[in-house]
Amino acid sequence: MISFESDYDNGCHEAILSRLAQTNDEKATGYGLDDYCTAAKEKIRAACDCPNADVFFLVGGTQTNATVIDAMLHGYQGVLAVETGHINVHESGAIEFGGHKVLTLHSHDGKMDAGELGQWLHDFYADPTLDHMVFPGMVYITFSTERGTIYSLEELQTISTICKQYELPLFIDGARLGYGLMAEGCDVTIQQLAALCDVFYIGGTKCGAYCGEAVVFPRGNAPAHFFTTVKQHGALLAKGRLLGIQFDTLMTDGLYFKIARHAVEQAMLLRDAFIARGYQMYSDSPTNQQFVLLDKNTIERLEKDFVFEQWYPVGDMMNCRFVTSWATPAADVDALIAAL
Amino acid sequence: MISFESDYDNGCHEAILSRLAQTNDEKATGYGLDDYCTAAKEKIRAACDCPNADVFFLVGGTQTNATVIDAMLHGYQGVLAVETGHINVHESGAIEFGGHKVLTLHSHDGKMDAGELGQWLHDFYADPTLDHMVFPGMVYITFSTERGTIYSLEELQTISTICKQYELPLFIDGARLGYGLMAEGCDVTIQQLAALCDVFYIGGTKCGAYCGEAVVFPRGNAPAHFFTTVKQHGALLAKGRLLGIQFDTLMTDGLYFKIARHAVEQAMLLRDAFIARGYQMYSDSPTNQQFVLLDKNTIERLEKDFVFEQWYPVGDMMNCRFVTSWATPAADVDALIAAL
Amino acid sequence: MISFESDYDNGCHEAILSRLAQTNDEKATGYGLDDYCTAAKEKIRAACDCPNADVFFLVGGTQTNATVIDAMLHGYQGVLAVETGHINVHESGAIEFGGHKVLTLHSHDGKMDAGELGQWLHDFYADPTLDHMVFPGMVYITFSTERGTIYSLEELQTISTICKQYELPLFIDGARLGYGLMAEGCDVTIQQLAALCDVFYIGGTKCGAYCGEAVVFPRGNAPAHFFTTVKQHGALLAKGRLLGIQFDTLMTDGLYFKIARHAVEQAMLLRDAFIARGYQMYSDSPTNQQFVLLDKNTIERLEKDFVFEQWYPVGDMMNCRFVTSWATPAADVDALIAAL
Amino acid sequence: MISFESDYDNGCHEAILSRLAQTNDEKATGYGLDDYCTAAKEKIRAACDCPNADVFFLVGGTQTNATVIDAMLHGYQGVLAVETGHINVHESGAIEFGGHKVLTLHSHDGKMDAGELGQWLHDFYADPTLDHMVFPGMVYITFSTERGTIYSLEELQTISTICKQYELPLFIDGARLGYGLMAEGCDVTIQQLAALCDVFYIGGTKCGAYCGEAVVFPRGNAPAHFFTTVKQHGALLAKGRLLGIQFDTLMTDGLYFKIARHAVEQAMLLRDAFIARGYQMYSDSPTNQQFVLLDKNTIERLEKDFVFEQWYPVGDMMNCRFVTSWATPAADVDALIAAL
Hints:
The structure is a homotetramer.
Chain A: E1 2-3, H1 14-23, H2 35-48, E2 54-58, H3 61-72, E3 77-82, H4 86-89, H5 94-97, E4 102-105, H6 114-126, E5 135-142, H7 153-165, E6 170-173, H8 177-181, H9 190-196, E7 199-203, E8 213-217, H10 226-232, H11 241-250, H12 255-276, E9 280-281, E10 289-294, H13 296-303, E11 306-307, E12 309-314, E13 317-323, H14 330-339
Parallel strand pairs in A: 1-11, 3-4, 3-5, 5-6, 6-7
Antiparallel strand pairs in A: 2-8, 7-8, 9-10, 10-13, 12-13
Helix pairs in contact in A: 1-11, 2-11, 6-7, 12-14
């Protein structure tokens, strides 16, 4: 069976494995205070062109979202996200567990519309009963989104401007940051992204690491005692070196971006093949997640050799997801294309 | 420098490293549903003689404590622990973040006294104002404790009996379970421990793994939808295989216990040398953590070659902690003994 | 100025005032354990035909919703409500403060559609990723709704049946229960309502009392230690007699229902007058809240003598709310009708 | 039976009852925005000599403590209190429900020792593991305390100085503020108290009102959007006038202080009688709560005619509490004295 099920079904990149082996007998202080973490942070600051950035390594995505959002919101505030945002759907209520409401806007193929954001904020502050409501305290977007789409630089700039106007921090969930930045047609650099938001993270779990998300506060603007908040949320890894070593490796010589680009290239080959053979794409995704409408017969046929997710029915068809990753062999894509 | 600073400053056991390397190119379903997790769970059930146990793999100790306690308590309940219990001191309020009070008893070298527990519960239920107070909903103890001590089988049985009498689940924090069970003079087996409590965990982080704690509900008594609660607490690892592979390795051929015994043996050599040379031990620890009173000159002298923690002053002396681990070379202990 | 602004802008019913004066010098035990509370509970059990009901008196609506919902949900569960439900809009995130997500369905003039509820639940349990989502743990509806509408008996029965099918408790927010049960055309009795749900409350604040909501668990099915949960939520009134006296008075000789009917009768006069004069009603409300579309000139003219709320624009018109209450003099309604 | 059971077992002061009757037919805006609340706030500002104070009216003590503490703490912070502090014992975990730990110091007859506070803070900031602990974010004391004691001006000043040194807000729980300020030998004025702390409240429930606590941020230093936080905590009374009218009455012509002084005077008569007859006082209380050690026979004898609480055994004796209030008739005290 060849799997396109997810981008977190492989181990880690071989360079990471080597580093883990090389360093295994060394001793290192715990909780992210080791030399590997320090080195990785420096490389991230350099890559983002943010010399004063605060960088923290957490273990997973839901954990990172919950910790960052809770740390940055006041108790009376909620977080604005689109309905399909990961925090609103697939995090088992982790944000609400921290006491905060997810305030939702419509999703446009996974993206937030800046105009709708502005309108929502205008309407909120015009509402005479606003003191009885949950105040917006942050804007959350994903890059790339859960639907494989990305924001253009102009779109990000517009959202960022609205956030600044309303003094709302902008948080970019980068669980798939690499695949977004390396997407076909992406006109956003990581430096620009860092400059436009108040906090984001570089997702390791889905792009080369065994686990780990690198949270970046670009202008040294981490909330006071964020370390303690991370600990309180159960998100502080005792052997922080495991994260430091992984990110140090990924951020060396642009490895993170190279392997992300590979995944996107494979996905584009797949997408082109789908289109060439007359399949209808559900969304126009330039990233490693491809959504295509398949009929029952095709699904049954492909399932004999390939693993992929069936998301939900669209009319008589099924919206199916095929995911490539940093670890997808070209041969796997060739095989799938041959089978189409 | 030779370090006795902690038992989580090394990488992982070489057998784990090998398994990670061997399996790295395989694909595996996420979230702990992979074959390695399944195999590890079976081995844990066998080791504990609990064929119906529910087993879950979480990443770290604070996270595990917070998730288990929150899952098992009602909103109006708190957890009983000794003052020095990890949840009461060094978890940054993770239990309270989940909405629960830590109700404290006196600590006796890190241990809870069964008699005091019984008295506390008697007094609570005799208090006419109890409906205005936090109800006890669970008893939390550590094995081995934060002070290196362990409970005897009889002590565990007495605590367990009181818990049953008051219908309180007993939770054993096993962050250092291996070092406790392999302690000098320990008369408790893992099967007995499993039979006497309602939930415990086998700590991997401090005993051979890079990360990971295996939570065991011995009689299949996990709270409903515990998987979702784990996710909500940010404690569900996407690449669950990382935990499955580690525990499968540790639970094969008793590796976990063998390497724990090594640490204890080294600690006993150290303890005996301290005593033989006239140093005063702060507590009588049969496990891998040794606490000894040192004067300023001795500390300064030893610090030139050795790393260890100074906990707190006791009169003119300092209570210092020396920790061995599964990875401590015999040569390190020899060197320290020579330097005493 | 004559006010139709809200149904909580008067003091309390004169019969309550008299009872407060008569009993003022008596001493009474605190926290709802006094004789007035006991008597009021008995009258509520009788009125609801629920001899085993557990009854608790809380102070206000948001507090009651937050306490009841938190007490009845497990940590991994959320509450299903329509988008316009009070808990989703005007409670400043009190439900999320307790750690629970409000899962939303479309609002139909304030009401939940049983078919949509059934579909939502079907889809949820058919979703292969459900373990990563917030589980539904309760259904919340309001009677009468925030838009003045009510459920028919058949509608309530259908919702209740679906709840039973999925083992979800049904919670009816009765902040305006009196106005709902006394509504024009209402075919639901309080006994039927009690039999169809798992918990509801009789709203005092908006119907004759100075404050107070009587929470009823019809079959003695209050969660364990609900008293303590009420205290924990800051919802336990020290001088509980203040609530006991009020509800004892309201539940004597059907006073609560009589005064609610008065408000509805006044509202119906108002509604008929609006319609007779050609105004367009925004919704078809048989209760004490009337929503009508007014143009700018009419608003300006009426505002000289009358107070009412402008909710939101509908095209060129404004959706305006006129509220009658138990205390609305017939003369006030006459004056408004004359001014139309 | 004559009751000395508590100071919240009467109705309200007759002047309040009159005002409620006089104003009952008036209409008033909800949520504390009415004229009575406005007037009451002005009188409180004048009484406290704090022209810029922010004043809010909440309903009860536990609610007020939980709301104020949660509003002023960051998520990673706890509140320092003595072990016997109301928030640590008799609030059913309301503080922890909001996510915060109560950090405890020893109680000295209900009081915090400034020296111990300073030492605790010194030790905390000297602890190398402090980042893994709950940070202190506020100091909470009660005035008068749960044991009837009060702080001298010098004691308050010392505590206040330490709080300023560590940038910790000082919160004074004034559930029994009147009885404290009017205590025998009290050398603190309400103006001095307001100047020395960052937030306090004037307890109405136990001193003349039916319900209500007036929270004062003396220098206009209420947390942003505190109104919304109050609502979120279920502590916003819809008919806020009920609180406004009560406090407006209590703060007119010093009524609050006069009736508090009456209670203290009665308590002093009682105390002197106890002492004159050779009873041993458990604590030296200059306020309305008197604690005395009684033997079994005396308790049985007195219980025939009097109601009082038995707190806990002290040796062979029982520590019994006798409480006077604003409403205690002199005849009741005479009767008890005669019975001694």
